[in-house]
Specification:
Layout: E1 10-11, E2 14-18, H1 32-50, E3 58-63, H2 69-82, E4 86-92, H3 95-105, E5 109-113, E6 122-129, E7 132-133, H4 136-148, E8 160-162, H5 165-181, E9 194-197, H6 205-211, H7 240-252, E10 257-261, E11 268-272, E12 277-278, H8 280-292, E13 299-302, H9 308-316, E14 320-323, H10 328-340, E15 345-349, E16 355-357, H11 366-382, E17 399-406, H12 411-427, E18 432-433, E19 441-446, E20 451-458, E21 464-471, H13 476-488, H14 497-501
Parallel strand pairs: 3-4, 3-5, 4-8, 9-10, 13-14, 13-15
Antiparallel strand pairs: 1-2, 2-6, 5-6, 6-7, 10-11, 11-12, 15-16, 17-21, 18-19, 19-20, 20-21
Helix pairs in contact: 1-2, 1-4, 3-5, 5-6, 5-11
């Protein structure tokens, strides 16, 4: 491969690339050669980090249901074995289960082959050590090794052993629910009806291996069968169509709860018995209420696109909301740093559906969150209460919108535009600059007609600016965008077509 191409596969703290033909204009970048080099580099990085020979390393390998997974897994396993590494082949698995594999199997590290919710032709890697998911700086080191071909060799040829890690993982979740309910009976969820939408990803196990054995009625669950082409909807809890499916399924089945997972089950969103979504701010409010129920003063780290009303809600529960950068690894890393400094941080959570609890080692795990919510649901039902009663005091937005605005400019030009926007906001009486904001530019609007906020930030992965708008009045989004439009039109490197389409 040409120099620099492997580094282009970096996506925050993950590896992602095109793994299949079939989409016009998208050439395969996650080639067999790239996979081999990345796996050799990961092994070398582990060896350096742990100060152990390569031949002493054991790695667990799993994957979601993507149709490119077998090719990538086979290359990865053969590469590890060629280096003298012993391998556990975990086959189809969730991402959180692959982290658990390290402790269950006493591995040095693990890899999940996944591209999360991205299109069928994409794939990639998530890497884990005993300390959790690797950081962005770790990925940089691994890819440097891959680019420089800095690999060791071994006379030993590694072994491979097949393991069904999902059986261990499912049993652990069942025990968590039983312990949380403090009921000494084999089916503590009897009488409860729960609908699961796995989006044809890896999440179907939660219905079949966790809920059903505990006595829950899972009739009405949809898209439990793994299918890497994702024929029914995008496996993304943030996707409007996906949420529509789980809402309809929950209402049709008269279920107590609807759960939707993303492809690799590190994210989730929920629907209550009345068909009301529990996502974004409501999702964060619910998870925060669960951890603050028995602990006062804990910090909740959220991402940059959460509302001021959510912060007030958390504060009233006795917690402290800390708004940080978008990106699951960003909020998790910040939560860990807060704890290292001696302050109790209970939860790192992103509005996209990532929730990482301190009690679960700050692993973003959609199934663990689902287990926590189910425990609370059962307790509330016993008391004649509703799950939504927990967050009834949260003031929610009337309208929300996210616009991805393509830009054709150098990074310096984009940064200058963001500085210009700050100055523009400071000089406009209708704008109120949020000076505590850490990512991009956040502006509050407090008039009767424009009551809400915007956040404009650079995308982590793509050449776009992402504009979030939240309004607390009907038709407020349009009113807010009308105020912002004159500023954006100044810049010729901005493609305004997506922005303007909102007004059609």
């Amino acid at each position: 491969m040409e120099n620099g191409l492997i580094k282009k596969l970096k996506s925050g703290s993950d590896i992602r690339g095109v793994a299949l033909d079939g989409v016009e204009g998208e050439k395969i970048t996650l080639t067999n050669e790239a996979v081999e080099k990345i796996c050799r580099a990961f092994t070398e990085w582990i060896s350096n980090k742990n100060r152990i020979p390569v031949s002493a390393i054991t790695i667990a390998v799993g994957h979601d249901c993507r149709i490119s997974a077998s090719r990538i897994k086979n290359v990865a396993i053969n590469t590890f074995r060629d280096m003298g590494v012993d391998v556990y082949d975990c086959s189809l698995a969730s991402t959180p289960a692959m982290y658990m594999a390290i402790s269950v199997l006493s591995c040095t590290a693990s890899i999940q082959i996944t591209a999360s919710h991205h299109p069928f032709n994409r794939n990639g890697f998530k890497f884990f050590t005993v300390d959790g998911g690797v950081s962005e700086s770790d990925i940089n080191e691994i890819l440097d090794l891959a680019e420089n071909n800095a690999f060791s060799s071994s006379e030993k040829y590694g072994s491979v052993r097949s393991i069904n890690i999902m059986d261990y993982y499912s049993e652990n979740l069942r025990q968590i629910i039983k312990k949380g309910l403090d009921i000494d009976e084999p089916q503590p969820l009897k009488g409860l009806k729960i609908v699961v939408d796995a989006g044809n990803g890896a999440g179907g196990f939660f219905a079949e291996k966790v809920l059903r054995p505990l006595g829950a009625n899972i009739e009405g669950s949809i898209f439990l069968e793994p299918d890497g082409m994702f024929p029914n909807h995008v496996p993304n809890p943030e996707n409007t169509r996906a949420m529509k499916y789980i809402t309809e399924a929950t209402l049709k089945s008269s279920a107590d709860l609807g759960i939707i997972f993303d492809t690799d089950v590190d994210r989730a969103a929920f629907v209550d018995s009345d068909g009301r979504e529990i996502s974004k701010n409501r999702f964060i409010a619910l998870a925060s209420a669960l951890v603050l129920k028995d602990t006062q003063g804990g910090v909740i780290v959220t991402d940059s696109v959460t509302s001021d009303y959510l912060k007030s809600f958390i504060d009233k529960l006795g917690g402290l909301a800390f708004r940080y950068k978008r990106g699951y690894n960003n909020v998790i890393s910040m939560a860990k740093r807060i704890n290292e400094k001696g302050t109790d941080c209970l939860l790192a959570i992103e509005s996209s559906g990532h929730a990482a609890f301190k009690e679960n080692g700050f692993l973003d795990d959609g199934a663990f969150l689902a287990a926590k919510i189910i425990i609370e649901l059962v307790k509330r039902k016993r008391a004649g209460e509703n799950l939504q009663d927990i967050i009834k005091n949260l003031i929610d937005a009337k309208e929300q919108l996210c616009i991805r605005i393509p830009v054709n400019a150098k990074n310096e030009e984009v940064e200058k535009m963001l500085v210009d926007l700050k100055n523009y906001a400071d000089s406009n009486k209708l704008f109120s600059l949020d000076k505590d904001n850490i990512e991009g530019v956040r502006i509050n609007f407090n008039s009767k007609r424009q009551n809400g906020w915007i956040l404009l930030r650079k995308s982590i992965h793509d050449p776009v600016m992402v504009l979030y708008v939240e309004s607390y009045t009907i038709n407020g989004v349009h009113a807010i965008l009308n105020l912002v439009q004159p500023f954006l039109k100044r810049y010729k490197f901005i493609d305004m077509s997506e922005f303007n389409s909102v007004f059609r």
